[in-house]
Amino acid sequence: MVVSLNKKSYIANQSFAFDFDGVVADTMSLFTAIGREEFGLTDFYPEKITDYDLTRCLDVELDTLMQIVTRVVSTKYNHRLEPMPGAGEILQKLAQISGPLLFVTARPDAESVEDWLKDTLDMGKDSCEVIATGSFDAKAGVLQSRGKKVFVEDRLETCFYLKEAGIEPVLFVQPWNRRPHSFHEVRGWSDLADFFGV
Ligand SMILES: [Mg+2]
């Protein structure tokens, strides 16, 4: 069963927020490109990542995976971190309607995300705010303190955790979250635009 949500009121009340990696940014494409091109991993593509715990779905040494994760988070790479298709346009539209948008990431620092939003989507500090929690489990507390009721997230484990904390997750479909759940899910940003009614 899929939860039915009163979408319009979320916009009016600014009661929604977004995860960053895997929702706004196509981080897994960057991750796998670094793996292929700099670590010589073959057949290393986002579709192969069927679990957020990479050690469960990839036959790659943990140390190598951690080195790639470190590269991605440090932003020291020769690739581009691309937005998910449609994300920029729809986020701009939402910001125009509802005011500044909130992004809550489990990354350890907000600066790299703020810079990316400014450089890639032309969203400066007047149109968005980024909070970096450093852990998945700290997201619920941040959202609660900001009065957010809905959170768009790609990590299924976090969705279950948010739900328990009274936040309604909207699962952004990705190859690594294809397991049974009862949350509202969206397949990309045009689907998300429909969800918000913009
Ligand atoms: Mg994510």
From TrEMBL:
Q: Where are the transmembrane segments?
A: none
SUPFAM superfamilies noted in UniProt: HAD-like
Top-rank lineage group of the source organism: Bacteria
**InterPro entries of this UniProt entry?**
5'(3')-deoxyribonucleotidase, 5_3-deoxyribonucleotidase-like, HAD-like_sf, HAD_sf
Provide an example Pfam family for this protein. Answer: NT5C
Q: Which family does it belong to?
A: Belongs to the 5'(3')-deoxyribonucleotidase family.
Q: Which PANTHER family match?
A: NUCLEOTIDASE YQFW-RELATED
What is the recorded name of this protein?
Haloacid dehalogenase
Q: Which organism is it from?
A: Desulfobotulus pelophilus
